[in-house]
Amino acid sequence: MGSVQPPDRQAVQEVDVAVIGCGPVGALTANLLGARGVRTLVVERSATAHGQPRAFSCDDEAMRIYQQAGLLDEIRDATVAPPLVEYVNGAGRVFARMALSETDFGYGHAPLRFFDQPRLEHTLRTGLDRFPHVQLALGTELAGLTQDEDGVTVLLSDVATGQRRTVRARYVLGCDGARSATRAAVRIPLSGASYAEPWLAVSGDVPPDAVRVGDTRFVCDWRRPAFVSPGAAGSYRMEFMLRPGETEDEMQRPETVAALVSPYVDPDRFTVTRAVVYTFHHLIARRWREGRVFLLGDAAHQMPPFMGQGLCSGLRDAANLSWKLSLVLSGVADAAVLDTYEIERRPHTVEMARTSVRLGHVFLARNRVTAGMRDAALRAVQTIPRVRRFVERFEFKPVPAYRRGLMAGGRRAGVVGTMFPQPRVLVPGAPGERLLDEVLGDGFAVLGRAGVDNPLGAWRPARFVAVHPSGTSLADLPDPLAGPPAPGGPDRVDVVDAEGVLGGWLRRHGADLVVLRPDRFVFAMVASGGIEQAGRDLSAALGAAPHGGRSRADTAGLAAAPGS
Questions:
Q1: What residues contact 564, with CB distance under 8 A and at least 6 apart?
Q2: What value does the mean pLDDT of the chain take?
Q3: Model's pTM, two decimal places?
């Protein structure tokens, strides 16, 4: 797009971040930024919610991100966790299964949940109402942008009237999907492949007694592969591969849809809400950043649906970039920190996409002989206990970890660079058990054994969480809510390790303390005497001041960082 010229005599709105697109990724990004006090404008081309159930599933990492946005209860209450995923052949015989009810990756949530996208988007948009510094501009599209050293001049157009206005943002985030106008505006190409096999996606509502297959299934029928599953709030989702010669118009006819869904639901009692033909892609943007413009979600990457990770990957993008932007905008971190967004996220996204492609190859055997060999091979290897566990417990899913980036030493080493577990803990003054993230705060945190003497010293992260062993009486611990809080919020919170997970983790990895990033990835593991060095490592990672002076992190104080 060409240069942006502000309309005459019109005031230019100034914001910290302009988010282009208010689908699930854009809306979540705006919630995360809003929670950190960032002045945000969200731009959405559609004047109304689209109301289409496109995305369908999310995982435990995604639920943890919704939790960080303060929307866990609303979203969790509107989802359903399937206990089992089965792979069956054309005759309905099971040749592999994933026992999700027995799978726990340790992040505090079920490994798979199904949701209704219109309801999810409503929850995310309603969440923006919590923040007076976040604005949503509906019926508005990106018409152009130009950048300079200090920010981005964004030209917006009212879709209905064509009236244009100018916004000045320090950063722009393209969350506007596969046909991203933001990506086009900064001329970033895509690379990868589109797959020739079209699919019919059917969503609808059905009463429980009209459901004929109540489990989540990949139907690996070489004649017509399919995916079927009950969803949230009485919904049901089915996807069917088209055969050669079948047309989009033919497949979307009501009688065709009724015949396809009949083995799984009663078609006479199934209310179709969406039936569309689509082709999936395996594409990734050549780069995810052009100056002050960043790409997130489908604007940056698109992957096959077989792992259900398309939306989840976009949510991970939002969780990774939002806190870094907050620190940079507040002067706590140098702008170079933003380079770690793509450094960290791209390799994991590529690995997730490749795993989805490999799973698709298992799913999409297209002739009888190949399908029969696949079924026999998978049944045979699952007689080996370790292989059966690998399949049943979903262990082929790439772990949430970064190879390089914002971590002590700049590279993954052991558990440094991986996501920290989230068990339940007991907190003085709070009823019942709570998920760990609820007591960590929104900034950097140090977690360690309560017996470590004065671990923080002169270095003050956002919070120190002192872990007491299971069985410790809460009455013997200080109540963080009793008495006035320390300036900038509590420096220390005592918790009881209700499940023994935290103490076991520290012992297993030979550490007294662990430094956690705001997105709950491990920045560093240290012994009690090494916290000062960890502080220096963190200050260096966030950007040291020139001439050997104190870093911005030292000067601003991490305890004063936004969201602390």
A1: 441, 442, 443, 462, 463, 488, 489, 558
A2: 87
A3: 0.90
